[in-house]
Specification:
It contains 4 helices and 15 strands. The chain is mainly beta. It has one domain: Alpha-Beta Complex (hypothetical protein yedk fold), CATH 3.90.1680.10.
């Protein structure tokens, strides 16, 4: 699963890359974690827009206390699962997620460090996602996952659905079968770079939440 990514570009640069007329300022940090604000590119009335949203669809488990906060489900393993298929079928609930780097933890438990992945020829790229309006947090988004390629697999067996530029329209406007095909396609490892660091992962404490981050 992917629980950390960055957008190390200005709102103007992101808007220009995705063909958005009006950049949107948000309170999203450079490093985005589940349950925190981020930016998504959606399409409304034939035009692309930038929206500030919370990363993760809210989910309440039966075992949770009524006063407990929902869990942010930030990754989509299978688009055909009940939680996702309703929005996946409808183009108005598709989104492109601007990313410059995404990270996976590497190393022994308690000492895991951040390993970053990026595309050297694409300073900004799109992670295929879904979004909706929630009662709990307003606009929310989540990202589709696929099998890891040879660059990512030494660290994790899953990775984000990274889209080529000529796939953007297909993701945003295509059929459910188009989305499933794009999710099953693995991004070429030779187009990616890996940066291993000594920076600690510093993950927030979780319990049952870990079971819901990837559905």
């Amino acid at each position: 699963m992917c629980n950390l990514y960055t957008v190390r570009k200005s709102a103007e640069e992101v808007a220009r890359y995705f063909g958005v007329a009006n950049p949107v300022r948000s309170n999203s940090p450079e490093e985005v974690y589940p349950g925190t604000p981020g930016i998504a590119i959606i399409e409304q009335d034939g035009a692309r827009e930038m929206r500030s949203m919370t990363w993760g669809f809210p989910l309440r488990l039966k075992t949770m206390k009524p006063e407990a906060k929902p869990i942010p489900v930030n990754n989509v393993a299978e688009l055909t699962k009940p939680m996702w298929i309703g929005v996946a079928r409808k183009p108005q609930w598709r989104c492109l997620r601007p990313v410059t780097h995404f990270a996976e933890p590497e190393g022994p438990k308690g000492k895991k460090t951040r390993t970053w992945f990026s595309l050297p020829d694409e300073p900004i790229f799109a992670w295929g996602g879904l979004w909706r309006i929630s009662d709990e947090w307003g606009p929310v988004y989540s990202g589709a996952m696929t099998a890891a390629n040879e660059a990512v697999s030494p660290v994790h067996d899953r990775m984000p659905v990274i889209l080529h530029r000529d796939d953007y329209e297909r993701w945003m406007k295509g059929s459910l079968d188009d989305l499933l095909a794009l999710q099953q396609r693995v991004y070429p490892a030779e187009l990616m770079t890996m940066e291993q660091t000594s920076d600690l992962w510093v993950k927030r404490k979780v319990s049952v939440e870990e079971d819901a981050q990837l559905l």
